[in-house]
């Protein structure tokens, strides 16, 4: 009896390679790659803040801009797709000036003290945020729902996004004085991952801020406490409450922390967990962004359900 011949899937079409030059170095990358991908293949350290490996580019921070020959404006490396025979410069005077101004604007209006890449960028581009004036003090007349324009003693308006830290639940805190409006938390909460849509950008201009619907506390919002917004936040504006308490007590020390890979025990999906442990206490839980199941995402149990492992004394 002759064996039955099963239909076979057609072979995948060969990926077309695109040739271009970056800083006078030739490089080939697959079609559909971005300029950032090509830069990374050459080992060129291109600064990013709003870019996330698991999210679509938001083009918000503009610190990754590069100079493209023939283009009128600088282009964002994180989202601009490569084209044949592109000639790109990543460290020209024009690029350096633009990046310097971007990091100065950010550092003059928000707290980047626990954003390690930002500290490197400030030094790399000789940035001087102080030339835009001192930070404006908190204004008690403003409620916690609004980012602020705060009046200076000289009558001028100082742009700042200072807000009181929001602690309205037992799992994580929101400190929007550190927020750079990168949109990563909104995208992770929205249609790119969680599809909860608990947060969005409210307001315009200097009054733009991340907010729940009608600025409700998190327990009264659509939030399901997956913590995926924390996972993508680059500045610490969203933070585990356990980490926030340790930082407030000046005892948070990543040099003393260990990281242990394990599998989440709560269901059969098989999510990978990374347990961050300090002084024999789990202080936070993350998931690898390159894991093919989670892509850095978890549910409330996987991300926050660790108190029973090492309860506080």
Helical run tally: 7
The tally of structural domains comes to 2
Mean pLDDT over the full residue set: 87
Total number of strands: 14
> Structural class, from secondary structure content?
alpha+beta
Into which percentage range does the β-strand content fall? Answer: 15-25%
Helix content: 10-25%
Measured between the Cα atoms of the first and last residue, the distance is: 72 Å
Low-confidence residue ranges? 139-160
CATH topology of the largest domain: Alpha-Beta Plaits
Reported CATH architecture of the largest domain: 2-Layer Sandwich
How would you write the strand order of the largest sheet?
A: 2-1-5-3-4
Question: Mind telling me the CATH class of the largest domain?
Answer: Alpha Beta
Whole-number radius of gyration?
Answer: 23 Å
The succession of helices and strands, N to C, reads EEHEEEHHEEEHEEHEHEEEH
For the biggest sheet, the summary is:
5 strands, mixed
Overall 3D form: globular
Question: SSE layout and pairings?
Answer:
Layout: E1 17-22, E2 25-30, H1 35-41, E3 65-68, E4 75-76, E5 87-89, H2 93-109, H3 116-124, E6 148-151, E7 157-160, E8 172-174, H4 184-189, E9 199-202, E10 209-212, H5 228-232, E11 238-240, H6 241-248, E12 258-263, E13 272-278, E14 281-286, H7 300-304
Parallel strand pairs: 1-5
Antiparallel strand pairs: 1-2, 3-4, 3-5, 6-7, 8-11, 9-10, 12-13, 13-14
């Amino acid at each position: 009896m002759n064996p039955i011949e099963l239909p076979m899937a057609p072979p995948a079409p060969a990926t077309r390679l695109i040739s271009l030059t970056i800083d006078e170095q030739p490089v080939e990358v697959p079609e559909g790659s971005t300029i950032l991908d090509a830069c990374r293949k050459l080992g060129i350290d291109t600064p990013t803040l709003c870019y996330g490996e698991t999210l679509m580019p938001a083009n918000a921070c503009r610190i990754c801009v590069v100079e493209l020959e023939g283009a009128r404006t600088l282009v964002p490396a994180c989202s601009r797709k490569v084209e044949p025979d592109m000639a790109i410069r990543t460290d020209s005077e024009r690029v350096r000036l633009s990046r310097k101004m971007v990091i100065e604007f950010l550092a003059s209006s928000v707290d980047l003290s626990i954003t390690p890449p930002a500290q490197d960028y400030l030094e790399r581009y000789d940035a001087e945020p102080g030339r835009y004036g001192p930070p404006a003090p908190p204004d008690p007349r403003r409620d916690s729902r609004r980012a602020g324009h705060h009046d200076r003693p000289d009558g001028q308006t100082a742009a700042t996004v200072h807000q009181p830290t929001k602690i309205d639940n037992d799992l994580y805190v929101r400190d929007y004085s550190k927020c750079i409006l990168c949109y990563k938390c909104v995208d992770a909460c929205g249609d790119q991952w969680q599809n909860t849509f608990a947060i969005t950008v409210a307001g315009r201009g200097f009054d733009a801020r991340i907010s729940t619907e009608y600025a409700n506390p998190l327990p009264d919002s659509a939030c399901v406490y997956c913590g995926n917004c924390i996972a993508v936040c680059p500045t610490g504006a969203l933070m585990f409450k356990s980490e926030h308490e340790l930082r407030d007590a000046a005892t948070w020390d990543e040099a003393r922390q260990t990281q242990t890979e394990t599998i989440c025990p709560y269901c059969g999906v098989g999510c990978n967990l990374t347990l961050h442990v300090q002084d024999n206490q789990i202080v936070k839980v993350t998931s690898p962004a390159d894991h093919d199941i989670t892509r850095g995402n978890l549910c409330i149990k996987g991300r926050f359900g660790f108190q029973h492992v090492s309860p506080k004394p």
